[in-house]
User: Fold this.
Amino acid sequence: MLESLAMPVEKQIIAALLLPLFSAVISYFAFNSHKKLHVLSGWVASASVFGSFILFLILFYTLRLGLAQEVNAILNSDLGSWINVGLVQIDFMLRIDGLSAVMSLLVTGVGFLIHVYANGYMAKDENRPRFFAYLNLFIFAMLILVLADNLLLLFVGWEGVGLCSYLLIGFWHKDMNNAQAGQKAFVVNRIGDAGFIVGMITLFLATGTLSFSQLQSLAVSLSPELVALAALCLFIGAIGKSAQLPLFVWLPDAMAGPTPVSALIHAATMVTAGIYLICRLSFLYTLAPSVLALIAIIGALTAFFAATIALVQNDIKKVLAYSTISQLGFMFMALGAGAYSNAIYHVITHAFFKACLFMCAGSVINACHHEQDMRHYGGLWKKMPCTFACYLVAVLAIAGVPWTSGFYSKDALLWTVFSEGDILSFLHLGDYSLAVLIYYLGLFTALLTAIYMGRSLVMTFFGQYRGHGEVKESSAVMVVPIAILASLSYFFASRYGDILMELLYPWTRSDMQLSHHLLAENPVFKEREHLSMFVALGGLALALTFFWYLPKVTQAVAKVFAWPHKLLSHKYYIDEIYNWVIVEPLRFVAGALFKVIDRALIEGLVNGSGALVLVLSRRARVLQSSMLSSNVLTMSTALILFLFWLLW
Amino acid sequence: MISSYLLLAVSLFAIGVLGVLVRRNVLVVLMCLELMLNGVNLAAVAFSQQLQNADGQVLVMVSFAIAAAEVTVGLVIIVLLYKNFYATATDAAQNLNG
Assistant:
């Protein structure tokens, strides 16, 4: 039946891809013109993403039919040759395999919910068509990224989402801080992108192709050093996009954008592009174990550092931003352990609960008259029961409380790290291998996660209301998408986890290729699972005790440890360090260059040539006096001289 | 014989040149131009008589016709000058200086 209903697969892929772009163009050019059409833009945008989602669902079922027959089945859509110069042959090719099907469903599904939510959140904004145009354009770019069949096309999407992120962070650009946050995101990402380009060119020079399937077959024949170099450079790109340790500074600032943007781009989808990239190139990374070890280490350190910073932040969106960085660190840990599918699994569940958290935060911010400081919240559970319930579910999920989605994904993720003995197996600290150390750091971070999320829950919803002004529950347009995401973050993994793992089978580490039920029979796994449960519940219990029942004790503790507290609330002074080590010297050099090269040399040359002509002409212009008699005198003198010369 | 004609012709021409150089009134300048022209005409006629050749006289006839046209154009220029600058002095129109 599906076959008769559906268009040909290729056209279906193209339609699903182009729908959001089409709507973006309409929004930007048509709906912007009339105030009355502004309302329309949001709904058309949501409908286009929903249509795209439905098309991807149909494609997903088609793919599953194919997967039932063959593990590596893919759906292709070849739009013809893109670049064809000499030996360079790059096609405009889209592909849907298990990985991109999962990602495109996530992008359009979560994207649709956030579009609907944004209709409520941005209801009073005057620039709504522009907002939805950017949001739709983002969906389009993200779809290009996940559907691309070669590295160059992926890069197009990669830059496209970066552009949309920049545009949306600075959406309220009349405030200089927002515009600067957008610039910061753009510039920091550019550092990562440089790595991406170098990696891409390295691969191209070595193999002569950028198509994933061809790279996969050729990668084995390359020298290990070359593979490691390319993998490392591409990982730098992933670090930039996914806000990992040296380059994470842009993501907290990116919270300057509207909250739906934070939910969609800076939590659920775009920042996971780095994880997707490494997953997509898993064949490469499997051949570079040292890079994998580096990925695991960076992931673990990022997770830990970001979680400690999140402990003391007071801005609710900053807490969630650092939590996002921390969770992305978890995903990189799994990638480092070679468990690509588990990383994607966590990407999916994280998208649900983190988008939910952000949307709840947006709902609270909207209700509290754009107040983001949690110290001015409190006691909101009575006033906003629906938002509270959803936030609670999402907090339970992110903390990893048993039988939520977050529990399944994070538990499996930590297990992959624990059971991977190969991460730099020669490197031991005492009796522990590096993998086990990373595992314990991850476990401790999970504890911190439960604590800071519990803290944000307590500060926002429990106790006494500390703010001013009336607080009302948000409208249904906002609450319903939140509720859907909350329920997904509760039951998604237990209900659909197995289907997900089946789709991601080619990216699954061999020892993880069994379902959760079979894995659960392993006694070591069971022991670790209990430990995770204990950590999650213990963390939440600690948070409740210290931030709800004993706030005075907490304050006293903060006073005793004033120095570390200050260090944490200033985010380890990393922004300041970057400012002094990189930004200021750069600015100085740029200033010097401006003065010497631009002002003195180039402007001197240009202005100097003009001034020279002016000086030289000062004498000559006396001749042009326009005094008739002097002109005639000159003329007659010349004539007389000419006459003399003639007669001589 | 011819030398006295030529002396007169040169005197006329020189007076004309001096007038053009010295005087500021456009009308006078135009008159001095005519003086220069007539000096030249006189010389041409004198040479024509001396050499027993009618060419010079023909040339003078042509030159008269051209001078008449020239005066017309010159007077028009003077009228326009007066209309635009409310003056008949050559100094009035100095807009084209460097």
Summary: Chain B has a mean pLDDT of 89. Chain B touches chain A at residues 17, 20-22, 24, 29, 90-91, 93-98 (CB under 8 Å).
